[in-house]
Amino acid sequence: MSQTAAYEALAQYIDGELIDAGGRTTQPVLNPADGSVLGHLPRGTAADIHRALQAAQRAFTLWRRESPMKRSEILRRAAQLIRERAPQIARNITLDQGKPRAEATIEVSSSAEHAEWHAEEGRRIYGRVVPPRSPDVRQLVVREPIGVCAAFSPWNFPFNQALRKVVAALASGCTVILKGPSEAPSAIVALARIFHDAGLPPGCLNVLWGSADEISRRLVESPIVRMVSFTGSSPVGKQLGALCGQHMKRTTMELGGHAPVIVCADADVDRAADLLAPYKFRNAGQVCVSPTRFMVQRPVFDRFVARFLERARAIRVGSGLDDGVAMGPVASERRLNEMIAFAADARASGGEIALGGGRIGTRGNFFAPTVVVNPAATSKLMRDEPFGPMAGIVPFDDLDAAITSANSLPFGLAAYAFTTSTRNAHAIATGIEAGMVNINHFGMAPAEIPFGGIKDSGFGSEGGTETFDSYLVTKFVTQLN
Fold first, then answer.
1. Which of 116, 254, 385, 462 does the annotation list as catalytic?
2. Distance from chain centroid for Cα 355
């Protein structure tokens, strides 16, 4: 079977119906490993957006009153289907997004746990009774679903990021209109098929394709949509947030990061380098929590750099479908050109390109794992999120200065530190300005953990019990008997 023949049949999903192009305009979906056309994605019309809004509103009037047990049953069935279909979904993610098939398989399979966790936790959305000041009064606080939600998910983890938004909304009793990534759409269509086959009522989940600007504007401006969840870059998130503010729409924003790493002199340096190198180049560095700004205490700086380079050199780059490949292409030609620009700026500003620094070959969007030693503080790499396979490593002497440097950018999503000192660990945990701080390991993935940032990295959480906050409204009921 050819790669193209195995690819997902692309469609929109509105009111329980998969809708192919049917005379609509389409856009090609490209394989970043070789530039071949995998399929053609239908672009929705204004009528499609209107139909999705009406379907979601109609479905909400019923879904909000559905038993939490029934909602849980459907989410559990979806989790089962995710596990069953993971190999094919993962293969298609490799085809349109580029990550190695092993990484794609983990992304899809682990998403089943998120569906199951929300299935269980959605049964425990409780209110409370508030003791009254008068014996004739009864006071209740109840949590109710906010309504129709609009969700915008990214291309770097096309299945997992969309799934998180969908299950949180559905478990809360909300309905969803999802605009996924046009660059890597197969996972979103597969997700729609899974919920359809799991028995989700028509209209509870709708998938639109087309112009992100038009879809976001129409959805946000519609009085039907009550909440917006967005994962993507900080600049786009700010634009969308401003539009939501004009219409008083509640939002959850999971935006960009530029994660700092602090490696103290007392750390297990070899272990730190062994863990950080593959983690940095996972998904070709196209991860919002990817470690990027490495600050290593001077006494162990040379040792860490040598070990990190050794591990980075061993990373095999190639098509994600090939056995043994640890890093695939970046997702698009635009990302490739961005990485070339970052490398050129690093050289021009005096940084030492100790590894990589350029494109691999002339076919596909392959960029070499790149390590820049002593990049200038004013360089593009140390100021802007590269969102690609590039790391900058600088020495530091004083821990307080390293923490200040880590906090110097407007980002605040994830941060990492390696130390065996409880005093250092406490200083880092309390001093770092980030939504998630990982010390001596990486612990952000589980469904029960809140995932989100501060400052320009957004607000709100996906995962943990906090995930429901954005999808629920609090109602106070007071009754005089």
1. 254
2. 28
Q: What is the pTM of this model?
A: 0.95
**Of 474, 477, 479, 452, the residue nearest 164 (C-alpha):** 452
Q: What is the pLDDT of residue 3?
A: 43
Q: Please, which residues bridge with residue 416 across strands?
A: 261, 438
Active-site residue (options: 288, 338, 433, 462): 288
Residues 204, 396: Cα–Cα separation, whole Å: 52
pLDDT in tens, 55-78: 999 999 999 999 999 999 999 999
CB–CB of 184/96 below 8 Å? yes
CA distance 296 to 307: 13
pLDDT at 445 over 90: no
Mind listing the pLDDT tens digit for each residue in 390-437?
999 999 999 999 999 999 999 999 999 999 999 999 999 999 999 999
- Over residues 304-322, mean pLDDT: 97
**How far apart, in whole angstroms, are the C-alpha atoms of residue 314 and residue 270?**
15
Active site residue 288: yes
Going by C-beta distance under 8 Å and a sequence separation of 6 or more, which residues neighbour residue 176? 56, 148, 149, 150, 151, 165, 166, 169, 170, 204, 205, 206
Active site residue 264: no
**Which amino acid is residue 137, in one-letter code?**
V
Backbone angles phi, psi at 434, to 5 degrees: -160, 155
Q: What is the pLDDT of residue 6?
A: 80
CA 311-106-203 angle, to 5 degrees, is 145
Domains of the chain, earliest start first: 12-255+458-480 (3.40.605.10), 259-446 (3.40.309.10)
DSSP string spanning 52-113? Answer: HHHHHHHHHHHHTTS-HHHHHHHHHHHHHHHHHHHHHHHHHHHHHH---HHHHHHHHHHHHH
CA–CA separation, 115 and 168 (whole Å): 8
Q: Measured between alpha carbons, how far is 429 from 262 in angstroms, rounded to an integer?
A: 11
What is the DSSP annotation of 130-192?
PPPSSTTEEEEEEEEE--EEEEE--SSSHHHHHHHHHHHHHHHT-EEEEE--TTS-HHHHHHH
The token pair at 300 is: 């162990």
